[in-house]
Batch of 4 targets.
Target 1
Amino acid sequence: MPGKRFRVLMLGDIVGQPGYRAVLTSVAKLVKQYSADFITINAENAADGFGVTEEIASELFASGFHVLTTGNHVWQRKEAYSYLDSEERILRPANYPGGNPGHGTCVVEAKGVRVGVINLQGRVRMPTTDCPFRKGKEVIRKLKDGTDLLLVEFHAEAPHEKEALAWHIDGQVAAVVCTHTHVQTADERVLPKGTAYISDLGACAPRDSVIGFDPGISVERMKTQLPLRNSPADTPGVIHGAFIEVDLESGHALSIERVREESLV
Ligand SMILES: [Fe+2]
């Protein structure tokens, strides 16, 4: 497929009902606006701010998403474990123990293009998992031959770990986009060997919030250091992510730009 472009939208962590509502009401418009061929979103906090359920995942697929990624909060809804095993298009980080529910990679065809998606998780200030650098290379080797392009979502906390992973696999995947910190970064660029990168996609979350959660509770938590339970803020949502154009001949990124969409709901 020489010279053909493939357009990918990758959206950040959904937080709570406002984020979820904003995504459902805006996804068709975004796909049209960007002429997107493929769209992913991180759903680990879609269920009221904690975890994901089969019902929510099914609704996201029905609204047009090709693949759902997750992270450390994917384990919070035990009732979703069997769904994680049975639904290929929802991922959990590949570097958790192999016997855990679900799987860390998938290949989904869209418009005749075989897209491999890889979900990895960082280890700096995160739960202890296998090395994402070694696991990343391992799964890339496995997926390379049966795919036209590869996308990596790296769910991680520390920018230095995120950038290092992207440089480690630069040229082997079309994109490394990161999630988990919920605040969109302004460092998007294509690395020298052709991998698009951004340190955080940002969240699809209540706009007036502390990383998606109620500012009042967040301030109180900081002031008192009491283990107060966070609750998603109840304000209109804002959607964040990145738009990546991929050259199908090389499987490399041509460009990456930030996406930000204010929602009225
Ligand atoms: Fe997370």
Target 2
Amino acid sequence: MDETPDRNVCGLKIIGAVDIGGTKISVGAVTETGAIVKRLECATRPKEGFAAAMERIKNMLREVIGGGFKLEGIGIACPGPLNPFTGIIGDVGTLPGWEGCNLMAGFESEFGVQVAVENDADAAALAEARWRAAKCNERFIYVTVSTGIGGGIVLSGELYRGATGAHPELGHQIIDASGPLCYCRAHGCWESLASGSAIVSWVKEQQPDTAVGTAEEVCILAQQGDPLAQRAVAREGYYLGLGLANLVTVFTPDAIALGGGVMKSGHLFLDRALEVVREVCTQVPAEKTQITLASLGPDTGLAGAAQAWNSRYH
Ligand SMILES: [Zn+2]
């Protein structure tokens, strides 16, 4: 864990931020300006059950908010599907056995503050829109490219929600109907063509005996001049670009920020993606949409959780 800063924190207003992922859970104390002053992490171990994970989170929260902070509220970011108003988790692929469990209930009674739960991509979108370096966020879309592809839309500082609060699934827009079958049951959705898993699947399809196991490894090989990995990276630029082009044509937002693990290698394929956007988006002023890498980096999860609370209750 990070050390608590030496400065006097007595009375400093903080938001307890909880970022739940399939692999790890981060818990932090985040100020109202988005600074993370303390953080802890543990493995999620979803199969040990929801109750056990909640106990671990509560213990970490008690630890991060100790030492004189004033707890304003708690924000929780979690992969969807989930209901952001009741806190009830749906059938989340990376959290088996947690369906129907309530993320909100235990925390409100234990800590006596309001709790905001948000889909993690929406939470990240809110944090990027509020705290990102570049400010042209009136119409803003955040896209995360990692194992899957997700995103959130923020209009005038407010999260865009669909009917009954539904979270728009940007990653499952169809890019090529003859493409691979996705678990969403569509063929050739954006996630099935341009996510980290899609990069690995494609390489394995081309070369079944490959030792490559992650998108990051493919990107490293591409940088070292491996021809198949370079084709995979070129393909990533093309399909990433097509999905972005759809967002630009449909929304023409002021900005799109790209985050997630795969974008750490964005220097290998972002230029190609932007070229595709310029080629395809002829019917809207596409040059008005700034497409950049997200600015919060590894802090996005906790900043998102805190901003989820901030934007709902502050
Ligand atoms: Zn899909």
Target 3
Amino acid sequence: MKFVQELRTYETSAGAKVYQIPMEAFPGLLTFAYLILHQDLCVLIDTGSGYGESNQQLVEGLQAVNKPGSSQPLKFEDLTHVLITHGHIDHFGGLLEVTALSDALVGVHELDRRNITNYEERRGFILRRLETYLIEAGVESERRDYILGLYRYMKQLFQSVPVDFVYSDINMQLGEFEFLHVPGHCAGHVVIRLHDLLFCGDHVLTDITPHQSPEELTHWTGLGHYLQSLDRLEEWAIGIRLTLCGHKREIKDLTSRINAIKKMHMQRLETVMEFFESPNTVNALTDQLFGSADGYDALLAIEEAGAHVEYLFQRGMLTIENYEQMENSIEPYPLYYKRH
Ligand SMILES: [Zn+2]
Ligand SMILES: [Zn+2]
């Protein structure tokens, strides 16, 4: 069996069996789905991307587990529910295949439902916002076309599928699974708790800080929401023994990981304030923070920088030096931020 790494198993304090299924969502991006067997529920949390070998690795992960009380391997048909942590394609892209082969009920948070059910429309909508954002960030036209081209390419990877319920329909609870909305990294991100285990998608990760994007591209994202969600999770997750993530290793000490992520963002905010001692663009800041990123990383880098600028601008700590042009024209143009 050719796993990108071996299948790991866990057990909750009340005896639910958990299987961590590894997939290569995109080249070099290791992503996990989780299969959980508890009472009469057979739940899959996230599905991988559907890209490349990802679906095949998901199928093999299920097949490595036997149906409860049987020596037959599990199949998509045996799933009762698919729970999506958030509307990023490396977590829901596999739905296209899963929903074709099973009657499992698919759930997602209401703020990310359209990412799955209105995929094409949302892509087009965000593309327009992204173009304006890149112009205002000071990205020159050739590089802008390159970044927008990468975004357009993502459009071909999925097509809309229906979902069966949103988590508020079930009062944020399914059997003994409990949900908490943690917007920031994604608008409708949830973390899911079962007994003493937490499934946290991309909200908290080891080794890397989860990607941030400015709220001007999608409502309910942005660094402000994200930092608030870290605080909410810290309070909510008391008694959690182990946190299982969408990427990277599991987290044993969630509180100290949350504090390290908060500290890193505070330091970055200070760096951003220092950078804007003299007026400059988000694009120049991105080069300073991340160097010359290529491929999809180029988009991620300029979103990350912009999320920090937006946070400070919204709080009046940065101002736009050339704001007066805005009053004369609605056409976007490069904005020069400076420290207030
Ligand atoms: Zn994500
Ligand atoms: Zn992810």
Target 4
Amino acid sequence: MKKLIKTKIFTSILVIISIIIVFTPTKVGTTADVRVPIILYHNITEDYNASEALVNITPAEFETHIITLIESGYNPIDFDEYYDFVTNGKVLPNKPVIITFDDGYLSNYTYAFPILKKHNVKATIFAVTDTIGRSEGVNFAHFTWEQAREMEASGIIDIESHSDSHANLGEMSINDVQREFRRSKYLIEKNLNKDCNVFAFPYGGYSSEVQELGIKAGYKVLSLVGDVGANSAGADLTALRRITIRGTDSPEDLINTIEINLDK
Ligand SMILES: [Zn+2]
């Protein structure tokens, strides 16, 4: 009888140890070594023209990018997790990456959302609130608030602000900058019933005054555009770096671009 109890206790301990091992995230050296690349896409279209590779990628190529990221060991995280890492030392998974889209195109809902759901990969869409639901007078159609709610409800997509009118904040009056920050935040919070804490500067336009106004408006994280490196635990949360991915980038180019930026 005693032997049986001992065996049971031993088995339970083994099970507990296995559970701990399986659910403990892999640490990447110390927090100081961790660099988080943020990659940026815009529109996804079958009607692909390489001259517009900065804003367009085909659905098939986009899915190949996502599969390659996963197969290369990258773990997509969201801005909440990154913020927690910077402010509270939260341990991130091995090879973290943040996937973002700018502008709020309908194609993000039509093509990217099903692909991301299929592979259970998180992403953030920076939407321009004034053009939500618009298909006329814009370069590409934009998703509606209803579609935005459906994406948010999946837990896969986080919708944040890319301003209200997509103007360059670095060239506006203080009043107009405040309006862009406040109105877009208000509309996202009201329509999606969530906190809007992250802002991406249209055209990467900003100044120290603009950064200050963004924080005053209630944002926790402000992010840039361009091929400018990755983000450490000590990164400036009012100027996070993002890497533009082009539609002409092969899966190998994607991984090389990320790796080059990890060292910048
Ligand atoms: Zn934009």
